[in-house]
Structure formats: C-alpha cells, structure tokens
Design a protein that fits this description.
Elements lengths: L2 E10 L19 H18 L8 E2 L4 E2 L5 H11 L3 H10 L4 H6 L8 E8 L4 E2 L18 E2 L2 E9 L3 H14 L14 E8 L2 E2 L7 E7 L5 E7 H5 L1
Antiparallel strand pairs: 1-7, 1-8, 2-3, 4-7, 5-6, 8-9, 10-11
Helix pairs in contact: 2-3
C-alpha cells in the first residue's frame, strides 16, 4: 500500500477496553483489530445514514457492510482503464462493493487504513474503578482496562488521508467511541497530537468527508459529507 505513516497520540477520557471475542482481556495489550473495528463501525454508520450504503449491502454474519470481489471482472477493468488508484476504486464501485469495504478491506481487497504498531505503558492497565457504572444498572467496570496515554501508528493510503482518514479521526475525537463496551461508558479517547511521517500535523481536524461514488454516466465522482449531515 502506498501509505503515509500517521502517528496519533491518544489520552483516555474513559477507560479503553479491547477484549477478545470472549469478552475477556486475556493479554495485557491494546488490540489493533479492536481499534480498526471501531473506525470501521462508525464509518459504516456515517455512510449508512447518508445513503452511501444501504441495508442490502450489510452482511449479518460478519456484522458489517461487505461483498466479495469478482477478481476476473476487476482485472479486466484495470486492463482497460489503467492501474491507477482511481481506476481501482471505479472497478470496485462498478461491482457494487460497499464504500466501507473499499476503505477497510474485503475478500480480495486490502484495507486502505492499517495499524503498524501501538506504543503503550503496561502499567496503565488498571483494575480500578470497581464500582457500578450507573447506580440503577447491573453494569460494573471490567478489568483490566487501559487508562492513560498511548500512541498508534496508522498506515494510511495517501489518496484517502485528507478525504477519509482525517475526517473520521475528527469524528471519533468529538463523537465516537473506541474498543468494546462503549455502550456502558468505555472508549472515549482524546486526540492529543497527530504526526505525519514524523512531523507534527496541525491541520488534521476536518469535518467534511469526500466519498467516492459513480455518476450516472459511470464516471468517478466525490460526494461531500459534513458533520451536520450525519448528526441531524
């Protein structure tokens, strides 16, 4: 992937929980798949409520918007159009591959957003607090959860850095939740600093997405989505 390294320093507002499929933290770690899964989930929500994807594209078995690519049709289109990023996106859209699957991967297509590494302090995994989250609910803070700063190095395709990744990071910073158990209060994170290829990025905050779509004549177009469109 022709990507840019984006280092994001996070601070936990509420504890971060990234347990496994059995709802347990068997290892003292921040699981990359849980963070990527959170980005994909909220991006799917944004796309769905703006009509970018519909419920017919949702795979209930996988719990996400996904469709398998026809590799022969994809290769044939690339031969005609060219091996550019735009031609590849156009080839996928012509197969009705959902936009979230184009961004985060599907069978036969690699994700455009990946996590290269996560740097964290193991001492920040804590078992406190242990009290009820809400007095009238049977919900307890689980353990262990991460409480403190950590840094995630994302590898992002350069073509979606400003149009998809930064707007999604902005959305997550203001409204989204990371990891598991966010319905009971976990996973609110604050973005402390963003660096691109080692240099501080001051202009990462953006609330307008540029989503690829096909026009009526089959040509590639970008649809603008801003926060007002998916928060109303």
């Amino acid at each position: 992937m022709e990507g840019k390294e984006v280092e994001v320093t996070f601070e936990t507002i509420t504890p971060l929980w990234t347990g496994d499929a059995w709802q347990e933290n068997r290892e003292i770690e921040i699981r990359p798949s849980s963070l990527i899964g959170s980005l994909r989930f909220w991006f799917e929500i944004i796309c769905y409520f703006n009509g970018v994807v519909d419920k017919e594209s949702f795979d209930p078995k996988k719990g996400r918007f996904e469709k398998e690519i026809n590799p022969n049709a994809f290769r044939e289109y690339i031969k005609k159009c060219g091996n550019t990023f735009e031609c590849k996106i156009q080839a996928l859209l012509k197969q009705n591959i959902p936009t979230p699957a184009i961004i985060f991967g599907t069978t036969g297509w690699r994700s455009l957003i990946e996590i290269k590494k996560i740097d964290f302090n193991r001492e920040n995994f804590k078992v406190e607090p242990k009290e009820k989250i809400l007095p009238d609910k049977n919900w307890d803070w689980g353990s262990p959860s991460y409480q403190g700063d950590f840094e995630v190095t994302f590898l992002v395709n350069k073509n979606i850095l400003d149009s998809i990744f930064y707007p999604l990071l902005t959305f997550m910073d203001k409204y989204g939740f990371w990891g598991g158990k966010w319905n009971i209060g976990y996973g609110r994170l604050k973005v402390v600093e963003v660096k691109k290829n080692g240099s501080k990025e001051d202009n990462w905050e953006c609330e307008t997405f540029q989503i690829y779509e096909l026009k009526g004549n089959g040509e590639l177009n970008k649809k603008s989505i801003n926060k007002d469109m998916f928060l109303n």
